[in-house]
Amino acid sequence: MRVNFTVNGVEQTADDVWEGESLLYVLRERVGLPGSKNACEQGECGSCTVYLDGTPVCACLVAAGQAEGREVRTVEGLADGERLDPIQEAFVECGAVQCGFCTPGLLVQAHDLIERVPEPSDPEIREALAGNLCRCTGYEKILDAVRLAAARKAEAGR
Amino acid sequence: MEFLRPTSWGEALAAKADAPGAVPIAGGTDVMVELNFDKHRPEALLDLNRVGELATWSEEEDGRLRVGAAVPYARIIGELGGRLPGLAMAARTVGSPQIRNRGTVGGNLGAASPAGDSHPPLLAADAEIEVESAARGTRMIPAGEFYTGVKRSALAPDELIRAFHVRPAEGPQQFSKIGTRNAMVIAVCSFGLALHPSDQRIGTGIGSAAPTPRRAFEAEEYAAGELDWAGRSPLDERVARRFGELAARAAAPIDDVRGTAEYRLHALSVMARRTLTWAWKDYLNGGATACA
Ligand SMILES: Cc1cc2nc3c(=O)[nH]c(=O)nc-3n(C[C@H](O)[C@H](O)[C@H](O)COP(=O)(O)OP(=O)(O)OC[C@H]3O[C@@H](n4cnc5c(N)ncnc54)[C@H](O)[C@@H]3O)c2cc1C
Ligand code: FES
Ligand code: FES
């Protein structure tokens, strides 16, 4: 089947999509956006997190056909051209990236958190990231990065 | 394989009647896992995301809330947490934020896993499930009759779940779940409890400790009779303990990878005792549920 949807502001058409295929597969294999990672295909790891009509979801659990006519924003759509989003900058500065497999999903999920909750508490950060697994960093640097990005955002808003 | 995209409830029912083997998909958090791992290949997927009314809820004339099958957990928590505190507590324990953004109570009912977290609070609050088929119209199924076996329900192959109906809490409600961490766990076992002060009754729901979610009738009757509803005197610890024992007695757990039967029975008695203790404390402090 054919699926038409918008990804990072650009209209996309994917052809020959199998009816049981996931949005994650379509993004990675048909639209050429391999940023969203496939690490479990069962909703457990969060590395495939994307925005679907503004809500973070696991792309591996959305059927491709369910994305028809909808807006998807992936990790590739966070930066403004060459300028990284503040959450991306903070991840780099804090050393929150090691192998990087979990990073795209964490960036989208953390981006959503600081959009919704201007100055998140530590328990709020932990709760928001509870569905994103990282096997490398031990999470401390990731928490640092989210705190830093949130603080900068709050500062800029003052 | 086909991908069916009805845009109205009528179209969805017609599609299901034409292809009873079509698998409905709402949040996809159960269906897609099965597809990704090629556990089975249905003849068709029936996407319910375009049936707008399934993602809405309303207040009915009978005083109950009618909540569309495809309202995701995140919205149950955000929009109905105050009126359905037991269900909202359970919803907060489901998966992760991403799962709660997509997963629905209708999907939980459709999957009918004994471990589904919606079931204990729906049982405790006397919810009814509204199902419909093109051929036979609407049926209202009390939650207690909906679950018929492990991953089996009273839903017929040509039927779809439209909504559940439940009275807003008129007393404290609680939910308790055992798992290995706070997020992303299927319940080892769980327990839901609702006080119904106006008819001096208790509702319960046991999760993941029998082939189906079920109520603990004996425990309900025992506690309802022992509690001092009018005088609002504190809960006797012996009553709480006995309530826990009776709740565990209603279960029929098995040993599996998540826990042993013996552990589940013990955990259930503890959860039942604690939830009754918390709920009664809330009741003494003013009646409504403190934690929403
Ligand atoms: C990582 C992860 C963690 C999870 N954690 C939990 C947890 O903590 N607690 C828990 O209870 N569950 C958990 N689940 C399971 C799942 O999220 C829930 O069962 C959820 O409620 C399913 O809802 P859904 O809309 O995504 O269902 P779907 O996957 O869309 O559907 C599930 C089933 O219901 C049927 N169905 C859906 N809607 C209807 C309808 N309107 N009428 C008839 N049939 C219908 C489908 O055909 C399918 O059989 C988890 C899943 C994942 C992937
Ligand atoms: S790949 Fe989707 S959650 Fe792991
Ligand atoms: S950096 Fe390797 S999994 Fe997180």
UniProtKB/TrEMBL annotation, chain A:
Annotated GO MF terms:
2 iron, 2 sulfur cluster binding; metal ion binding; oxidoreductase activity
Q: Does the keyword Amino-acid biosynthesis apply?
A: no
User: Which Pfam families has this protein been placed in?
Assistant: Fer2, Fer2_2
Output the superkingdom of the source species.
Bacteria
Transmembrane helix: is it a keyword of this entry? no
What keywords are assigned to this protein? 2Fe-2S, Iron, Iron-sulfur, Metal-binding, Oxidoreductase
The record's section on SUPFAM superfamilies has:
2Fe-2S ferredoxin-like (SSF54292), CO dehydrogenase ISP C-domain like (SSF47741)
Q: Tell me where in this chain the 2Fe-2S ferredoxin-type domain is found.
A: 1-78
Identify this protein by name: (2Fe-2S)-binding protein
Automatic annotation (TrEMBL), chain B:
| Species lineage | Bacteria, Bacillati, Actinomycetota, Actinomycetes, Streptosporangiales
Question: What are the protein's UniProt keywords?
Answer: FAD, Flavoprotein, Oxidoreductase
Entry's Gene Ontology molecular function annotations = FAD binding; oxidoreductase activity
Q: Which InterPro entries match?
A: CO_DH_flav_C (IPR005107), CO_DH_flav_C_dom_sf (IPR036683), Diverse_Substr_Oxidored (IPR051312), FAD-bd_PCMH (IPR016166), FAD-bd_PCMH-like_sf (IPR036318), FAD-bd_PCMH_sub1 (IPR016167), FAD-bd_PCMH_sub2 (IPR016169), Mopterin_DH_FAD-bd (IPR002346)
**Looking at the keywords, is Flavoprotein present?**
yes
Name the SUPFAM superfamilies on file.
CO dehydrogenase flavoprotein C-terminal domain-like, FAD-binding/transporter-associated domain-like
Describe the location of the FAD-binding PCMH-type domain by residue ranges.
1-171
> Does this UniProt record's set of keywords contain Flavoprotein?
yes
Name of the protein this chain belongs to = Xanthine dehydrogenase family protein subunit M
Please tell me the species this chain comes from.
Bailinhaonella thermotolerans
